[in-house]
Amino acid sequence: MISIVLSTLFLILCVQPTKAYSVFDFGYSDQENANPTQLIYNIASYSLLGILQYLLVSAIFEWKNPMPKNQRRMQNIKREIKYGTTQIFLQVAYSMIFYHYVYPYCSWYRYYSINQYGLLNFGYGMLFLYIWTTILGYWVHRIFHFRILYKYVHSVHHSFTEPTAFGYCATHPLEGISEVNTVLHLAELIIPIHPLMTLFFFEYITINEMMGHDGGEHDHSDHYRHHLYYVVNYGDTIMDEFFGTAYNSKNYPVKAKCTYVDNIEDRTEAIFMKYK
Ligand SMILES: [Zn+2]
Ligand SMILES: [Zn+2]
Questions:
Q1: CA of 22 to the centre of ligand 2 (A)
Q2: Using one digit for the tens of pLDDT, what is the confidence trace for 166-183?
Q3: Structural domain count, the chain
Q4: DSSP assignment, residue 103?
Q5: How far apart are CA 134 and CA 221, in angstroms?
Q6: 154 alpha carbon, closest ligand
Q7: Are 56 and 142 in contact (CB under 8 A)?
Q8: Burial, 67: exposed, middle or buried (Cβ in 10 Å; 0-12, 13-18, 19+)?
């Protein structure tokens, strides 16, 4: 399945038209005549790069993860990759359509060269994105835990009770698009943020999410326990502590069971501490 997706994307890249297209041209410089060929080129190249990065970086996390690569874990990873690759393709397509057909109508769209933004803009842009995604990310995730939304959408992601780094984007298509892309694009419509700055911040989110699902020592917001116990640690630790949803071991005297390893009593690695 993955090889079919990758070779199709590779073929699309090879047969690009004679005009030189750039991955840095998101199409928003041409409001009156958004270029569909550039759109297809962007979708193909960014999803190819995104999927390659996803497979490579998640594999490094998994290689360093002390959990045994037994049949159960490998089956879990295969399922995560199936959802994850589809999700990356859909997220890229959604964002590129936004940059081609919505972003040009934003009042600062002509101010689009990254050089015109400057370091100060980069600084407050990053700060704004951090605060914005911390607050909205937490609440959108909590909303996804409401009945119907959980049943039909978010339960896909929670079917991975002991995820790996590959599982960070293993979600229902609606979830990834609303929880990440829509939140980021709304920010771009509020203050001038260049798409490359968004991409930079998106990379930060991606690595952070991979660490969270890997469950190792760099799981800063203790997201692995969100998968083990469902109704704790929805987002950034600051938000969970403020709204009283942070994991507290006293509330969970019966601990979640590790299904990859029979006996974890002597294990001291960070991921095993999540089960204690
Ligand atoms: Zn959840
Ligand atoms: Zn998760």
A1: 33
A2: 999 999 999 989 999 999
A3: 1
A4: G
A5: 11
A6: 1
A7: no
A8: buried
